[in-house]
Structure formats: structure tokens, C-alpha cells
Amino acid sequence: MEYGIWSVLPPIIAILLAVRTKQVFISLFAGVFTAELIISGFQPVTALNTSLNGIVGVFAEAWITKTIIFSFLVGAIITLIQASGGVEGFIHYLTIKTKTIKNKRGAMMLAYILGIVIFVESSITILVSGVVARPLTDKYKVSRENLAYICDSTSAPVCALIPLNGWGATLLGIIGVQVTAGVISGNPVEILVKSLPYQFYSMITILSVFFYIWTGKHWGPMKKAENRASKEGKLMRDGAIPLVSTDTTEIKTKEGVSPHMMNMLLPLIVLIFMIPFSLYITGNGNMMAGSGSTSVFWAVLGSLVFSGILYISKKIFTLNEYMNLFYKGVGGMVPVASLLIFAFAIGNSINTLGTGEYLASIVAGKVHGGFGPAIVFIISGIIAFSTGTSWGTFAIMIPIALQMSVAIDANIFAAIGAVVSGAIMGDHCSPISDTTILSSMASASDHIDHVETQLPYALLNALISTLLFLAVGFWG
């Protein structure tokens, strides 16, 4: 059944409510309920029942269950490396022993560099850069909103530009289907590589983050947040609620333990390098064909096992102390995991309504070839903003963009770059996006404050990207 314009209503309600009330749980549920109300033919009791069942039903999909468990387990890792003295030791090494980081710019550059070099998985990138850099950015009075922006804007863009990860595997699979179907011809790997120079939004975003860090020049809501942090010493606005339990942000090094940065670095190294290894295994020898969700799940488990052996063998913790901290860290992630469950639930409901397909159908086959890349970019952004998923946008828009490009004799590489750019842009702007939620969690920022301060920067980058796609469409 086609729901037409009605399919756009649930995400609009969820997003507007989230911005207006700053209560993301209630807003997401309102979006789910509205979607189910439309699907049920406006029968409230039925809609309430299917809404609750839909929230429980997200666990029917293995990758979603792994992602939610992953968020719990990451909370355990964060707590353990803090209590082991790893974070304190790392900060001591950078600020006192080597004096590598001496100021606010250096603290932000640490988060930026970690976001660039860790390109194996967007969630890992966000969490590592946020958790490791946060004590330093707090010390030098960087607003939590700014840290969330840095984490969010160096995760998906980097993973998309260096697709030796689950992002690359997903894009290759979608492109490969179009090659097999005869829509386009060529090698999927070669096609993906040739589309990378057209990921304008990703490149502009990475460069703009560097510009804001290096110059210290901000504008809009972010400028207000930075002025508040530097002049008043308030890392968050009064009344803001950090999207992480205070239990996990205030974990101190265990009494009697000498802080050492290797207590943090070794578990993180295992975590990071387990990703490509797991992609290789799950892809039967081909990293680009591996399972992203399974690889992340294995990596977190591997890191926890390794850290347990490391800390217990060094007599940092007893087994009971290790497990108590493990449970404390898991408990601290309950708000984040709950938000992810609701975000996935509204994503499933919106998928049933066909919101993405409806938005794409509005312009498919109705535009001049020169406008093609720019229109694909804008529609992909709207779909990702409305659904909260970049990968879902890839699945919807790449087939449409390629078929449209062939029909109007447009640049297919630019079309793929436009879809990826638009999907990441919409994801950055959306309060119901999982990566936006994780960025708020990693930086311990108020979620809606993060969305509101990042939005103007994302929209400016989107405007520049649109102009570049127009240039490619008409003169490229």
C-alpha cells in the first residue's frame, strides 16, 4: 500500500517535537505511534499495540541487536579504561611528560586526529575520539557541543572516503546489484573508487572542522556555546542533560593504581585492529564483503576479554572488581541504548510507510540532466534526515540515482558521490540518527544541543556541496 504524503508526517513530528521539547524519548515514540496510526488506518488502540510490538520487534534483526549490545559493552570498556588509570595516564603523558598538548586547540586536534586515523567503523571512531579527548577538552574549557561536533563530523565522512570497512562493503554490494542487473557496466570496486572524488560534503566537512579548530572562529549557536564554556567555565548550558550516565563520566582511577596510558591504549588497539580482522573472516577472505555489525560486535568482545586478562594479570583489578566495573559501565549506557532502540523502531515504521521511496519518486525522471547530481544530493539528504539512516538512504537512492543518470546521460560517479554525500549530510542534521546519538553520548553532551549547534555548519557545507554538484552537472 502507498501512503504518499502521509509517509512524511511521522519523521516530521518526531523531529519537531525533539527540537521543541528536548525530550527525545517521547518524540521518537510519538513518531512511531504516528506511523503506526497511519498504517492501521487511524485506529488508535491498534496503533498503540503495534507501536509497542514494533519497539520490541527491533530485536528480530540481528544487526540491530548486535548494535544495541555493542553500545552496552562500550560503556563497560569506557568505565574499565578510566578506572584502570589508562585515561589519566594518557592525559599525563600528553600534557605533562611530553607537553604535546598545551592548550585548547591541541585538545580539539587530538579528537580530530583520532577521528581521521580511525576509519574502520563510524561508531568506533566516534566513541574513541570522544572518550579519549573529553578529559582534555574539559580541562581546556571546550564546550561539549563542540566536542560532539568534532566527533560526529570526522566519523562517517572519513569512513566513506576511506571505504576499507563496512561502509565500503555496503556500497559495493548495492553498486554490484546494479551492475548485475545491467543498469550500468564495469567493476564495482573501480566504480566506487572513481566516485570518491565526488563526495564533496565529506571532504568539505573534514576541512571545515579543521578550520574551526585551527582558527577558533565560530558562529551561530556554536559560538554561544564556546563563549559560555571559555568565559563562564560552563561546558554545557544550564539545565542541559548529558546523554550518558554521570556514573561513567566521573569514574576515577582505582585507589592505589599507578596511572599508565598503556592501560587504555592496548585495549583500544585490540578494539580497532579486530575490525579489519573480523571483516576478513566474515567476508571469507574478502574484507570488502564482510559484515560490519558482526565485526564491531566481535571487536568489542575481543577488547573486553583482552582488557580483563591484562588488568587481572597486572593485579590492577580482581575478577570481582573487574565484573563490578563491567556492570557499572553497562548500566551507564542504558539511556543511550534505549534511544537507539527507539531510533531503530521509528526507522522500521518509516520504512514500512515507504517514506524514502516517496521522497525519491517526487523528482525521479523529472529533472534536467545538469541538475541531476545536485537533486540527488538534496533528496538523499532529506531522506537521511527523515529516516535517521545513511545506509538505508544508500539502499534507496543509489539504484534510483544510477537509473536516472543512465536515462539522462549524466555522470554515474557523480551520482554515487551525491548519494553518499547527501546521506551523510542528512544524518548529521537529524536528531533521530544513531551516529548523532552516539556523538552526544561520547562527548557527554545534551543531544538536542549537539543537533542545534551542528546544524548550521552542516547546512553551510551542504550549500557549498550543492553548488559543486551543479558545477559538475553542467560543466563537469
UniProtKB/TrEMBL annotation:
Residue span(s) of domain Na+/H+ antiporter NhaC-like C-terminal: 180-474
Keywords: Cell membrane, Membrane, Transmembrane, Transmembrane helix
Membrane topology qualifier: Multi-pass membrane protein
Compartment(s) of residence: Cell membrane
Keyword Ribonucleoprotein assigned: no
Top-level taxon: Bacteria
Annotated transmembrane regions: 24-43, 63-87, 108-133, 198-215, 264-283, 295-313, 325-350, 370-394, 406-425, 455-475
InterPro entries: Na/H_Antiport_NhaC-like_C
Name of protein: Sodium:proton antiporter
Native source species: Psychrilyobacter piezotolerans
